[in-house]
Each structure stands twice: as C-alpha cells, then as structure tokens.
Amino acid sequence: MKKISIFLGGMLLLFSPSAIAQLNPMGSIYYQNQFLANPAMAGLENNLNLNAALKAQWVGMDGAPRMQYLTADYGLPNNKVGLGALIYNETAGVINRFRATVSYAYHLPLGAQSSYLDFGLSAGVMNENVNISKAQGDLSDDVLNSFNDRRLYLDGDFGMAYRNTNLTLQGALPNLKRLFKRDVIRNVVDRSIYFFAAGYKFTTDKVLSSVEPKLVYRGVQNYNGIFDAGVNFQFLEDKIMFNGVYHSTNSFTGGFGINYQKQFSLLLQYTTNTSKMQNYSNGEFEVGLKYSFKTQ
Predict the structure, then answer these.
(1) Cα angle, residue 255 at apex, residues 198 and 68 outer, rounded to 5°
(2) pLDDT tens digit sequence for 149-177
(3) Which one, of 275, 196, 191, lies nearest residue 228 by Cα?
C-alpha cells in the first residue's frame, strides 16, 4: 500500500466520529454565543452582535485540531425577526473543514412580551478537503484524489426555543443534509445530530448579579450522546463572569470573562482532556470575543 494511503487511513481513523466525538464543542455555545448552536437564537436583542473565537484542542500534539469562527446576528426593532451569519473553519491534521451560513429567526410573542417561541433556520455551504501541502507520500494516490474530488455542498440547521425572563428551553437539528441525503457519508469529523438545552437564570441586585445553571444533551453520529451540566456566575452588574461545565466524557470546562460597558466581552476558557486523551496532550484553550453595537 502506498504511503499516502497509510497516512490518510490513519488520519481518517483518528478523526472518525467514534474518536473525535469525544471532543468538546466551542465553549462559547453555553453562555456567550448561543446562536452558534441554535439559529433560533439569532437577534434576541436589538443590537448588532459580533462574536469571534479561536480554540486549540489537544495542545502539544502534532496536527491537533484548531477551530475558529466569526458570527454576526441582529434583531430588528419589531423584536420579532432576527438575522445572522456564520463563518466556521476547522483544521485537524491534513483535513480542513469550512462552513458558511446565513440565518433567519422569527420570535413569536406569547401573551406577555417577556415570553417568546423562537424558530430559526440557517442555510449555506460546507466544504471538506485534504491540504495537499501537508500530505506526505504519493500525491497521486486515489485515496487523496477521491477525497478532494468532492465539492462543497449545501447544508443548514433548524432550531426552536421557548424563553421568558428567566427560563430558556431550546433544541436544534444541525447538518440537515444528512436527513435528506444519506448517500453522502463524511467520516472525517464528528457529525452533530441534535442539541437540547435547558437553563434558568436567577437574578439578584447584589454583588452576585445572576446565577444560571444549564443542562445540555448533544447527540453525535456513531457515538453515545454527551451530557453537559454547567453553571454561570455573573458579578457586579454582569461585569465579571465565571462559569464551569462538566461533560459526560469525563472532562471539565472552566471559564472567566469580563464585560466592559455591556458592549465588549472577553471570555477565556480551558477544557481538560477527555478520559481517553489525558495521557497524550494538555487540554484545550479557547479565547472568545464579543462586541455589541447599540442600535437604539
């Protein structure tokens, strides 16, 4: 067998759903940027929100995954329509993954203006390929060529949510293409199949501004469902934030954030390795930024 076949075969095995599914997602999805996981959460406020984050996984391992994203979401003045956009890029060894989508959300008031039923749909393109410049071996190998012959394809997500002043219940179906065309199976990266979350925010008028516990259940194709339990603490009128999330993969995410004048936010997070990776690398680091442009 040619060298490139061995190399790519190893990469495909390493980054198959059964292996990479144990990785934790971008930590921003839990509290700082819920739109990243659910298009129904676009435009919850009458502001233009920009979010960006960089995550380095399996630090210390060659070819370890790197993820970056940039999102924008805006809520129209009528409080009923939200618009959003996402650019996401991931590299893992020689494998690259790129996704770009736009989103539309409708926020239906239920009686009092503080209660809403949210619906969201995103649509865009996805592309996965092998970086030829990083590949080693016979570059004419059929494995390499057939992988890169696949062109970018249309994909999207659907989400719903119920929320009021304190309670948020939500669910999402990402990667809708797999539901309608199952003949294209891509095993390079984990494939999320559903996302459910429930959170309740307790507010006070003291030094501790709020406490928000949250439960999340994530389905991953060809792997056991992953359960997350987290809590977010905000202090001094939401100027300082501490949060922690336990993952059923036997890993833990801890985060610290600051919020300046309720416009600029910085979030730093560290995630310990899953139980099967703790002897090989140093965990995962994430830096997230958010800026809100006031429109009123």
Answers:
(1) 90
(2) 666 788 899 999 999 999 999 999 988 87
(3) 196
Report DSSP state, residue 40.
G
Residue 23: which of 236, 211, 250, 237 has the closest Cα? 250
Query: What is the DSSP pairing of strand 112-130 with strand 153-163?
Result: antiparallel
Q: Is the pTM of this model over 0.85?
A: no
CATH code of 194's domain: 2.40.160.40
Dihedral (Cα; 9, 11, 12, 16), 10-degree rounding? 140
Domain hosting residue 37, numbered range: 3-294
Q: In whole angstroms, what is the distance from residue 55 CA to residue 192 CA?
A: 18
Query: Do residues 52 and 32 touch, judged by C-beta distance below 8 A?
Result: no
| Overall domain count for the chain | 1
